[in-house]
Each structure stands twice: as structure tokens, then as C-alpha cells.
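for the recovery benchmark. C-alpha cells below, seq after
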């Protein structure tokens, strides 16, 4: 009897079924629209460039070959760029977390002295910058030009991350928890490291993911502040590879020019895969925290 009642309650009406069908259809379509470009880049990077340029590659690769990846992997500078980018991403993400998480927690506390002034101090650079030339001169005076530190230290404070973290701490770390910790003899530093941080995995993971992606894709700062080839990140190395291959293809004639253009096309798609694959592999490990972080600042009932 109880099972029949439960089944009747669970049974959906015709309108509910139609609504679910529409929702799932739209969601499936959006997933395909999002994933297909990435899938096309992968199959284009291992297909015959002639078929790719003529539009014969749609769902399946044709003339499978790995010439583009072979040429990419033969560039010694590619591995130097990978090493540098990993260093910049790891150290830069750690520095972003240290600078922004600590600042956002402090600004979320109601009893912070000078809270409005400090908040104003952080908000102004979000809308007004000093400009490229003053920034360059400051970095030069700090002796960070053409060093690894220029990719890590000067741009570690990001106001948006502080706002996101402050919202999370204000909504999820109640003052009552701090008062209870004080009764047990807990100080500010102990409370922050042993209670606040373990309860803040969601916002830490979200900011870490954003920071890692930002450092991984960063190229402008390297163009301005780095001169040595040994310090160039992956994005600059890949850019140089593309430019050199395109230049070679325009300088050649006849069959050699055709082969050079085909190689340049394969390398173009291979570069996208090589630069995107590592950061995409990292996303599934922080996805559950990222989904929680998306709701930071949402209206709570």
C-alpha cells in the first residue's frame, strides 16, 4: 500500500515530462555546441591539412598522421616553455592564494579597524590603473625585469578574488564560531589556519583554479618584462613557433611551400591542444569545489 502511494507521488504528469524533455534537449544541445569545437581541434590536428581546409573533416579524422605533434615535440624551447609556465602557474597561484585569501578574510570581519579605508584602497586599482609605463618603471626599479619574479609577485593581488573571498567568509564563517573559539583560548592566527581554512575549501579551490588558468594563459607580461629565451612561458614559445612556421611557408615556392603550409596548419591545431590539455586535465579534480564556488554570494533562504 505504501509503495503504491509513493509511486503515485513520484509519477510525473504529461506537462512535467514535456518540460523535462525540453530542458534535457536544450542542455544536450548546449553541451554539444561547447564540446564540438574542442573535438574538432583535436581531430584536425591529426588529419590531412588538405581535407581540413576543404571542409571534409566534420566528425571523423581523415588521413591520420602525427606530423604536427612530432615537429612540435622536436622544439627544445617547447620544453623550456612548459617548465617555465609550470613554475609561474604553481608559484603564482600560491602567491595569489596567500595575498587574496588573507586579505578577503580580514575584510570580512566586522571588527576590523579601518575596514572602509582598506576596502577603498583595494577597490581603486580595480577601476584605475597607473598605466604601462609607470608600472614598467616600478618593476625596473625593483630589479625584477627579466627575472622569474616579475611573473609572480607584482600582479598577485586581484581585487575580484578578494571580493569573492570576502563574500564567502562573511556568509559562511559566523561571528559565533570566532566567539566560541575565543572561549577555548584560540587566537586569530590559530582560528584562521585551523578553523577558517579547512572550512573554506570551496573558495580556495575556485580562486586557485582561476589563478592557475590566468598564469597558464598569461603572455602579455612576458612580452613586456622578459627578454631572455630561457625565461619565456609556453604561450610565447608557441607563438614564436607559429610565426616561424608561417614565415617559412611564405618564403618557399612549389612543392616545398605546399608541404610547409600543411605542416603549419597541423602545428596550428597542435599548439592549441598542447597549450590547453594540461589545464583541462586539472579541472575535473576541482569541479566539485568549483560548483560550490559558483554559488558564492547567492541569496540564501
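predicted aa per position
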Amino acid at each position: 500500500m505504501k509503495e503504491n502511494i509513493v509511486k503515485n507521488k513520484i509519477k510525473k504528469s504529461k506537462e512535467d515530462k514535456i518540460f523535462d524533455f525540453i530542458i534535457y534537449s536544450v542542455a544536450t544541445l548546449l553541451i554539444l555546441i561547447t564540446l564540438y569545437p574542442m573535438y574538432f581541434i583535436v581531430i584536425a590536428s591529426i588529419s590531412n591539412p588538405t581535407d581540413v581546409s576543404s571542409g571534409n573533416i566534420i566528425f571523423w579524422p581523415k588521413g591520420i598522421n602525427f606530423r604536427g605533434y612530432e615537429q612540435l615535440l622536436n622544439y627544445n624551447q617547447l620544453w623550456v616553455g612548459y617548465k617555465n609556465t609550470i613554475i609561474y602557474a604553481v608559484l603564482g597561484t600560491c602567491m595569489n592564494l596567500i595575498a587574496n585569501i588573507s586579505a578577503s578574510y580580514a575584510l570580512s570581519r566586522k571588527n576590523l579597524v579601518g575596514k572602509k579605508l582598506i576596502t577603498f584602497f583595494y577597490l581603486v586599482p580595480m577601476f584605475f590603473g597607473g598605466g604601462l609605463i609607470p608600472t614598467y618603471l616600478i618593476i625596473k626599479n625593483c630589479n625584477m625585469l627579466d627575472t622569474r619574479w616579475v611573473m609572480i609577485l607584482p600582479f598577485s593581488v586581484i581585487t575580484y578574488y578578494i571580493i569573492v573571498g570576502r563574500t564567502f567568509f562573511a556568509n559562511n564563517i559566523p561571528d559565533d564560531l570566532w566567539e566560541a573559539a575565543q572561549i577555548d583560548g584560540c587566537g586569530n592566527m590559530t582560528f584562521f589556519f585551523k578553523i577558517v581554512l579547512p572550512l573554506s575549501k570551496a573558495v580556495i579551490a575556485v580562486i586557485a583554479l582561476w589563478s592557475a588558468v590566468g598564469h597558464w594563459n598569461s603572455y602579455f607580461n612576458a612580452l613586456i618584462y622578459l627578454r631572455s629565451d630561457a625565461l619565456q612561458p609556453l604561450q610565447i614559445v608557441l607563438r614564436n613557433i607559429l610565426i616561424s612556421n608561417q614565415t617559412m611557408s611564405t618564403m618557399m615556392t612549389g612543392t616545398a611551400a605546399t608541404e610547409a603550409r600543411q605542416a603549419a596548419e597541423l602545428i596550428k591545431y597542435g599548439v592549441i591542444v598542447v597549450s590547453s590539455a594540461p589545464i583541462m586535465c586539472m579541472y575535473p579534480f576541482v569541479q566539485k569545489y568549483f560548483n560550490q564556488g559558483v554559488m558564492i554570494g547567492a541569496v540564501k533562504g
